[in-house]
Specification:
A hairpin with a 2-residue loop joins strand 14 and strand 15. The chain has helices spanning 19-22, 37-50, 101-112, 131-142, 219-227, 287-305, 323-329, 333-344; strands at 2-8, 27-33, 55-60, 64-65, 71-72, 76-82, 87-94, 117-124, 147-152, 164-165, 170-171, 174-181, 184-191, 194-207, 210-214, 217-218, 243-246, 254-256, 258-262, 267-270, 279-285, 315-322, 348-355, 357-362, 365-370, 374-381. The protein is globular. The protein is of the alpha+beta class and 389 residues long. The protein has 2 domains: 2-191 and 287-381, no CATH class; 195-283, no CATH class. Helix 3 packs parallel to helix 4 and helix 6 runs parallel beside helix 8 (333-344). Strands 14, 15, 16, 17, 18, 19, 20 and 21 form an 8-stranded antiparallel β-sheet that branches. Strands 1-6-2-3-10-11 form a 6-stranded mixed β-sheet, covered by helices on one side. Strands 5-4-23-22-26-13 form a 6-stranded mixed β-sheet.
Amino acid sequence: MRTATKLITSIFELESIDSSLWNFANTLVIAYCGSGWASAEPTLTALRAKLPQAVLVGTSTAGHFGAAPDIYDEPIMLQFIGFACGEIRAVSAQMPAISSAAELASSLSQRLAGPSLRGLLILTDGSQMDGAAFISSVAASLGEQVAVAGGMAGDGDRFASTWVWDGAQRIEFGAVMIGFYGQARMRCASGSGWTSFGVDRDITGANGAVLTELDGRSALSLYREYLGERADELPASALLFPLLVTSEKSAEPVVRTILGIDADAGSIRLAGTVSVGSKARLMRANPNRLIEAAGAAATGALAAFDAPCDEPKARAAIIVNCVGRRLILRQRAEEEIEIAIAHLGEETSIGGFYSYGEFGPSGLTACALHNQTFTIALFGEDDAVSSPS
């Protein structure tokens, strides 16, 4: 297995990529990009010409990083994962061609399903996609035996325009799904570090991902009361105070980020669906607890990996980290990445991005939509070869 990351500050730096190492059908290249498509498109087009045989995908981000803990907003970060034995397939679709997020997820999952499927990496847009409905449909289509991870594209703290790339075109409302087969190995873990406070509020009005009422009152009005002076900074300040939602339909509570508000309707748009009858409680974070949770996620991913320990093998880690954690940690944001690197070890190549929603394990459930988590997908393969220097 070969792994690498490369920061691209100029399109001319693509010339240094060795096609003899990466231009193969069993190589995945992920492009983590700033949100501006106009600036990213020339480089992505040139990358496609440079590596026509590789599986290429990409996403806009709210920041991204590679093997070093430095966080970037604009230069493109490329992450290379080349399998010696494992196989890769990618599919994609636009939402306008399919009526719902659930149908889109089911269609893509069925195209990748097979007895040798070992894991799925999912990238969706982060502005319009109903991530909760999408990932629930994936689980229903494939069951609990397939490892699933990924995230929703970001746009800094602007929440305006997000996209994913399937190697040929930009997708502003849709998804890219990558399947890993055969000797490929994939395991996932997530960490939170958030704590809830205040009293439980009954969700008395909701329509999909739009929360309209809490305890019979306008959801936005009640939320503004909680935020106090920070209410004037909405919707950006909402990233600092997500909701913990508990439902009778799920054994585990989930965190839901507020993506937008409708002042006229008095409603809140969440990053995933909620249902009437569920309960919601406000959450807040302590920086030290967030960083500790990132380390716990790395430890959990390694424990789940169940790899032989007689000799080190090359591994790759894709980290999907919520943008809210970056906004809270500020100058300490790199510490989350540093602690993950320390736990995963030098044989693990790391890349990832800040997202508007994370797909990862939740308690006994193989995969769910999370917000405000640090999610790791760890990749390796049986009979892997050492990463080249």
